[in-house]
Design a protein that fits this description.
Largest sheet: 5 strands, mixed
Low-confidence stretches: none
Order of helices and strands: EHEHEHEEH
CATH superfamily: Glutaredoxin
Strand order of the largest sheet: 1-3-2-4-5
Shape: globular
Number of domains: 1
Helix content: 25-40%
Structural class: alpha/beta
Length: 103
C-alpha cells in the first residue's frame, strides 16, 4: 500500500475515520533525521496493508502539526479509532515503529 499525503483537506475523512490503525509521520524536507525515517515509513506502508500510513509535511500543514503539538520532527503518531494512541519523536529503528503500531 502506498503512503498517503495527509493534508487538512483529507485528514478528517482519511485519517480520523480510518478503520485501520494509522501511522502519521510528521516531517519536513530540510530535516535530516526525517529523510532517514522516510524509507522506513515507506517500507512499513508496503509491507503492512493492515495499517494506513500517512505523511504530514509540517511546513505545508502547520495547522495539523499545531493540532498535534508537534515540537520536534520527525514525530510519528499512531491513531486508532480516531484517537492518538502513541508517539515516537526522532529517528528510530523500524522495529520500534512497528512495536508502537502493534502496541
Amino acid at each position: 500500500m502506498s503512503v498517503l499525503t495527509v493534508t487538512k483537506d483529507n485528514f478528517e475523512n482519511e485519517v480520523m475515520k480510518s478503520e485501520k490503525p494509522v501511522l502519521l509521520d510528521f516531517w519536513a524536507t530540510w530535516c535530516g533525521p526525517c529523510r532517514m525515517m522516510s524509507p522506513i515509513v515507506d517500507e512499513i506502508a508496503e509491507e503492512n496493508p493492515q495499517y494506513l500510513v500517512g505523511k504530514v509535511n509540517v511546513d505545508d500543514e502547520a495547522e495539523l502539526a499545531q493540532a498535534f503539538g508537534i515540537m520536534s520532527i520527525p514525530t510519528l503518531i499512531v491513531i486508532k479509532n480516531g484517537k492518538a494512541e502513541g508517539k515516537i519523536i526522532g529517528a528510530r529503528p523500524k522495529s520500534e515503529v512497528l512495536a508502537l503500531l502493534e502496541g
